[in-house]
Protein 1
Amino acid sequence: CGTALVYDSGSRLITVDN
């Protein structure tokens, strides 16, 4: 568990909780 940096469909970096 924690946060992860991922690219969305527009190649922007976003953070998500997993």
Protein 2
Amino acid sequence: QEQLQALAFDEYLRQVFCGGFALSDPRSIVVKMCATSLVDDFAVGELMEVLRIEEEWYVG
């Protein structure tokens, strides 16, 4: 489960940085903060919660 979450997080970051959010989107700020300095198990969990990524995203 945690490995899957970490993989999903990595892929999500890849999509965010390649596709990007609008600068006005608060999610872009959260993602960049976590990506630059807070990437650990706790931060991944917090980021997932903040962004409310749905379960279907992991499984699908």
Protein 3
Amino acid sequence: FSEGLSQWTNPELVVTGLSAGIAGLQGMSNCIIKGRKSFFDGTKYTEKVLGQMKKGDFHGFPESVTAFESNGFITTIKGGDGIVREMLKIPGGYKGRKGFFEFIKEFDGTINHRLFNAEL
């Protein structure tokens, strides 16, 4: 666990950022609700995502981020191919930047997008 935290620039700020993000998300109809099945149940990462995670860039954030899924929200997105997919966005911080941890799940349960999307 401590190895994962060493990748974070300041864990206290991440928790603070998550708390602020949660307050801003209250009342949204697409928030994850207690008792709802986990976004990650029955999922696995694609080979593409596994390769990207090894690079150590904004794809390589600690897997422990998934434990904060209840602080995030799910939206649906329509890809250029016309397929609708679920996207989980978890507010937080990584490498000194604020933003969202993003996961996009395919219909078959594979996760083909895993990225920390930093605010500009």
Protein 4
Amino acid sequence: MDIDSILPIVTSYFEGMTSEQWNLSKAGKPDVATITLLGEKLLEIVYLETQSTLKEHVSTDGPVSPKSVICSLGNTLPQIFAQALDVPDEVKLVSSEKLTRLIAKEIAECVNSVLSMSVDSGKETIPRITPPKRLQCLIQQAGQMIKGLMRDLKRECAPCESRKKVSQSSSSSRKTISEDRESLLSETSKTVQEIIKDEVSQFTKSSSDEISVSAYEQLESGSTLEMKKVADDVAEVIVDEIMMQNQVDLETAQSSPSLKKVCGRIKTCAAKQFAQASIGHLVERLNIKYFDSPDNPAFDQVLSRQSMQSVMSDVDALLPTVVGEIEQGQNVSQWIDVILSGETVELTNELKNIIINHIERMRPKTSSGPKRLSIMVLPPHAIISADILAMVWCFLGVMRWWLHTQAETLTSRVITHTLEKAVSEGSIDGASLPSDESQGSGSESEVTTSESTEEYSEEQEDGRKSLIRDNCYEAGFEDL
């Protein structure tokens, strides 16, 4: 493992933390944005080591074994994390050994997936996307290792403020429903939009912090109309449910068929928001890497904004939101099903081409004349293409993990908090909702984890590896 290549990845993870996120990670209760970013960084490491192993591999050697990758990695990974945190690396942690084994297994399987492909020698090969449960176990063990290393830290951060809970309504409190349906629809739609934005921002705030103001505004404006359409549909179902019953037991309302029907719309909308923010973050990273924006005087800010608009327009067309009646919270967009399945070669290439087109639009044009120009020299096309492919691969791995582990609970929270707010504002009559402890908080991810992380059996079932440790599927790692 090349320390010089991996250390900047790990260092950037810690440097991007706020004081609040630092304290939560030290306590073993990182927020969802921190967990998501950790997953992204772990996939960057996996991809980098996969490419390194492929370069050194001789075709006559046969498949790569996890044991050989472990020998190559040695104890480097925990040493890199310790160096990034500036703590002694002599501390032996069980979690670091488990993380190394899991990383090695994933690298070996990625390498072998490439070796098994029958492709022309001149074409790029794409490793299979990391399964969400494998990524969750990587996140879990990395989190345990980080907590163990942080015990020796002298740096202390101010205690963070916990997320404020919405006040509960008394089950005996009864209020009448407003007869003004249009007013209730409007207010409920606004509430749904606010809650979706708040929930998705919990996952994307680390990415959003690195996006320029102009790029962030473009992301916001591009998604507002689509979100409003979804919010209007959700609001209509909720208001109809309220008006029909006149009095609503909120816990019962959450499981009503009419509300379940809109869960697919919410899930798709949230997934689209997450994808757009992640891709916007990816493009901004490339701008900084290749054009040193906005410090480089040769960087064209106007062209950058126009190009970002083109990127978001292309992404919007590639990841459409299907409008229509949704049955029982099923996924409604084909691209979501594609990512969930892991069969993403075509989608990977389409996203890669969209981003390559952005780089080409931003490439400095040669000109002649008496004026002195600042010149930006870009790497060869093959290097840029490989960089973009790595970023897209990591994005799709994180996106698949997010859809499997986070999307359903986010959807549930949107419905819950919308009803909860309606009760707290006196719009409807209802019983108290379950607390955030039972629903899950958007700011912290709390689960009980298992000591075992060897989650895959060797047997095949329906073309996929059967899963042994389902608890690794949960998000977060509270009991570290």
